[in-house]
Predict the structure.
Amino acid sequence: MRMQRFVATLLAAVPLLAAEPSHKQYFEHYEGTKTCLQCHEKQAKSFFHSQHYQWRGKTPHLVNSAGKKLGKIDIVNHFCTNPRASWIGITKNSRGETLFQGCSKCHAGFGLLPTEEPTPEQLANMDCLICHAQGYQRDLYPDGKGGWAWKPILWKNQEGLDAVAKRIGLPTRTTCLRCHAGSGGGPNYKRGDLEYALADTHRNFDVPMGSDGANLQCIDCHKGEAHRVRGRGADLAATDDPQRPLSCDDGTCHDRRPHQAEVLNFHTDRVGCPTCHIPTFAKADPTDMVRDWSKPSYNQELDKWSASIELAKEVKPTYAWYNGTTWAQLPGEPVRFLPDGSVGMMLPQGNRKDPKARIYPFKLHRAMLPVLEGKGFLLPIAVEEFFADGNIDKAVRKAAEETYGLQDFQYRWVRTVRYMGIYHEVVPKEKALTCLDCHGPNGRLDWKGLGYHQDPILSRWAKVPSGKK
């Protein structure tokens, strides 16, 4: 009932996507972002400072950031490692087929790296249509200056471009998933719980987004003010809207005691909602669980090199305490090894004794990444040429020169782990975890790893006087 009331209130307050006004009456011809800026310069400047454009932001939930602004533009990750080394350009295989167009493919700009100041050139670089025009598509073309730029595929068809540019509306699930489901090299490779299937699905796959469920759009939960997006994944450095944190039980749809059974409400004090309500992820497309960059792998059918990747489907999450903050392995700082000898890239903070921590589900992603000998810095990889020639050493050295100015150096490969929060693909209550899934003989929780001597149910049971058991 709470969800139904929320949706009813939302629809009354926000125009339906289908009812968004056409921009037909506002301009005759679309001439790039300058057409949008005639009316929306204020909105453009607010978007300029958002995470979707800057790819960095404030880091109040990163415990070791020292207050610096950080984001994917700064930090080394497991997938394409860092966008700066592979920002824009076309890499082709021996057959002349395009393999890679750069990380800017999922940036809401036409090809320039974002700067700190909103110059006229930077404002003109914003691609408003990629989020706000249904049916809009773009591709990479020479910019006439020896470089590359993203342009609408209809840039030579003014009539067609005008028709698309006037079809303006709020972002839909399809719009958001175009980047968020396709990042990391393949469908659902990166996140694991953001699949293309969510664009049009049913409640058994995801209750909030199912057409026969709440049928929510991404922006219904994540929309903030001034182009700020609410919510933060546990493995993300920045928080776009720190003043308005997002949670399943923040009172918008559910509060901390949503169950009729009090024993379940007791659990919500120490267990996050997704833990019970997302038993598995990667339900439609397999997700990348291991990416070993030290072992190049050649795909003859695609005529393409990649890291050695292990995919998995219907994955059971890894569970850990999480209090909303994260420790990140930052570039330019010596790597810190975990007890098992791996390097923690993104580690959720919290433990059993932390009153703010609850048990949450994670995709535990593993990788092999290069580390600079002597200093212990993580090294990114320039992936664009590697996809064509498979020369991983050249790719490491090129990125190290661009990132740290290094030319003559040695490096070694280390195992890394990255905890990635799981928040989507919520199943109906009938399919949620039951008591024995966690507390049974072969329960899925690692109680000792979570700080308990044994299953806490057994501990409580042992303390009950024998006559009352």
